[in-house]
Structures are given as structure tokens and as C-alpha cells.
Amino acid sequence: TVLVAGSANLDFVVRAPHIPAPGETVLGSDFSTFPGGKGANQAVACARAGGVRTRMLLALGNDAYALPLEHSLREAGVEAHIVRTGEPTGVAFICVSDEAENAITVAPGANSQLRPEHLPDLAGVTHLLLQLETPLDPVLAWAQAARAAGVRVVLNAAPAQALPQTLLESVDVLIANEGELAAVTGVEDDMAAAVARLGRVDVIVTLGARGSCAHTQGGWVLQPAFEVDAVDTTGAGDTYCGAFVAALAAGDTFAEAMRRAAAASALACTRMGAQASIPARAEVELMLAQ
Length: 290
Ligand code: ADP
Hints:
InterPro entries: Carboh/pur_kinase_PfkB_CS (IPR002173), PfkB_dom (IPR011611), Ribo/fructo_kinase (IPR002139), Ribokinase (IPR011877), Ribokinase-like (IPR029056). ATP binds at residues 177, 206-211, 237-238. The chain is 32% helix and 27% strand. By secondary structure, it is an alpha/beta fold. The protein has a single domain (2-9, 37-90, 110-289), classed as Ribokinase (UDP-N-acetylmuramoyl-L-alanine:D-glutamate ligase, 3-Layer(aba) Sandwich). It has a nine-stranded mixed beta sheet, sandwiched between helices. Strands 3-2-6-7 form a four-stranded mixed beta sheet. The chain is globular. The two termini are 29 Å apart. Adenosine-5'-diphosphate (ADP) is lined by residues 158, 177, 206-209, 211-212, 225-226, 228, 230, 233, 236-237, 240, 262, 265-266, 269.
């Protein structure tokens, strides 16, 4: 069983000819809402990857915005542990311009109410998957509790921020893109030096269309990206994390799990949206067989 603990947001997306300047009103089009939030995206990716049971700890408000988030998790087969708070459900307001630029405002709301004591019973849990979109105190407490219970801790260091040493000491695998790796280690433009700062932690660095590479006790692993016609890379990183941990928990080796994650995240780039674009297991199998 994989337990994901983290954020869930409802994304409000409007397309506009350009991002409005302060004080400006722009007539946009194509309004839609999408279930999002890094935690929920990764839980859906883990569940769709198959082969493991997926549970998720999340916080939602007592409002209608919570409903599509609950629905998306349920439909993917995620067992949700929902903390119901007085704060509104987390939302993100996203304006996408015709030049494909975006401007995003997030109101974390209920996500900010997650506490150390909300961690559910870890019986049967082999892997805990965390991100940095919820407050750092509970993330640290959950990592430490999981570590003490013999659960493997995987941290996706997104969004980018510096991390306390105590958190890194409780992490088995760190997944970061290049910017996030620089924020965590304070080392820019030198992957080997950055990874060396992390000591015994296994590290995966995702490199967008260039694929991903990992540094483990056994040395370096390189995983090229699968070639696809990418239309929207939103959620590629989240799909990678969820699919990787699902494969690891199902018994794959580190390198096999990276390959599965690369296939799943490449497929996610071929469709719009975050959770909606995450492929099912059968599609990933087809990709891997190519
Ligand atoms: P993030 O969005 O978190 O910065 P990346 O952009 O590094 O994450 O993407 C995560 C993974 O998704 C990559 O390691 C790669 O395997 C896959 N990926 C991203 N962009 C593409 C692409 N254009 N084509 C194929 N795979 C991609």
C-alpha cells in the first residue's frame, strides 16, 4: 500500500488573449474547472498505475468545490482520508494566454489546516509519498513517523524551497526537477555536486523532455524520455512521482520504476489537464512494449 499525504486544489482555468495587467479587465473564454493539487495528482497517478493499493490524506472545506476533488480520487480508486475543515477547499485561479503563458494564484485554504496528528494508521503501508504544497511542519512529522514505522519515504521537493536537514534525514528517495534540486541543495548548475550534498538519500532529477536520471547507492541510472507529441506538460512531474512510487511498491527495481514513470509521464504530456491526462495501466504497458 502507498499512502500519499498532501494537497488537493480545484483549478479554475480561463483562456485569455493576454494575462491582465494590474487594474485591467480582459475578456477571456473557455472557462473550465479541473481537479488538481500536487498531492491529489500524484495519488491519482499512483492508483492508475495499478498493482498497489493507494490511500491519500488530504484536507477539504465544507463546500461544493470539494465535490469534484472527492469524485476524481474515488473514480481513480484512491481511498481518501479526508480532514474536513472550516477553511474553504484549496483553489487555484489560472489564466492561460494565447501565447501559452500563465499566471496562477493559489489559495491553499483547507490544505493549510493539515496537522501532524492527521496522519492515518500506517498498517500495511510500505511507501509514503509527500510534496511541499502543504505546511512543512506536518510534512516533517509525517516523514519522521513513517521512517520510525519502517515505511519508505519518497519526497517530491515541489514547489521549490530550501529544506531543513531534519527532513532530508527522514527521506529515502528525493524527486526533484533541476530548479527544485538547486533550491534544496543551494548548488546551481552542477548536478553531481548537488547530489553529493544530499549524502545517503537516493535522488531522481527529472529533466523534462530530456528524461530523468538518478543517483542511488548503486550509482547513476539514466532514463531517456519516451518520444511523444507533447501538447500540455502540466502534471508530467506529478504523474512521474505517482507512477514511480506505485511501481517501486509493486516490487519493481529502481531502474524499472523509472522506466514505467517515464512512460506514464510521456503519455500525460499528450493530453490536456493534470489528473484528466494521467494514463491508465494498459496504456503504459503498450508504451513499454514498443
Ligand atoms: P516538472 O513538470 O515537475 O518540472 P519535468 O518537466 O521534469 O517535471 O517532467 C517530468 C517527467 O515527465 C520527465 O522526467 C519526463 O520523463 C516526462 N516528460 C516531461 N516532458 C516530456 C516530453 N515533452 N516528452 C516526453 N516526456 C516528457
